[in-house]
Amino acid sequence: MKHVRVVIEGRVQGVWFRGWLAQQAGERALCGWVRNRSDGTVEAVLSGPAATVEAMVAACHVGPPAARVSRLSVEAAEPPAGSGFHPRPTC
């Protein structure tokens, strides 16, 4: 199992990035959460089989059609509490 925290920068708010990420992670049966941040970035914790997490991170480099990702940072994270993948409120 792999657990990562990603922060996505660029044109990622107002383009359905959070909803897209939640949908994609759910389809991949990942656990974790996603939220918009007040600084204009999107943050997520992704947890699951290493290959699946890595594929989701790769997909985040592109995102939904209207998004323009300029930077994506990835770091190790603690496993998320609970199960499933959920959107969180903006912080």
Automatic annotation (TrEMBL):
Q: Which Pfam families match?
A: Acylphosphatase
Provide the Acylphosphatase-like domain boundaries.
3-89
Q: Which reaction does it catalyse?
A: an acyl phosphate + H2O = a carboxylate + phosphate + H(+)
Which E.C. number(s) belong to this protein?
3.6.1.7
Q: Which InterPro entries match?
A: Acylphosphatase (IPR020456), Acylphosphatase-like_dom (IPR001792), Acylphosphatase-like_dom_sf (IPR036046), Acylphosphatase_CS (IPR017968)
Q: Active site annotated at which positions?
A: 18, 36
Matching Gene3D superfamilies, A to Z?
3.30.70.100
Its domain of life reads Bacteria
Report keywords, A-Z: Hydrolase
Q: Which PROSITE patterns match?
A: ACYLPHOSPHATASE_1, ACYLPHOSPHATASE_2, ACYLPHOSPHATASE_3
Family, per the entry?
Belongs to the acylphosphatase family.
Q: What is this protein's name?
A: Acylphosphatase
State the organism named in the record: Phaeospirillum tilakii
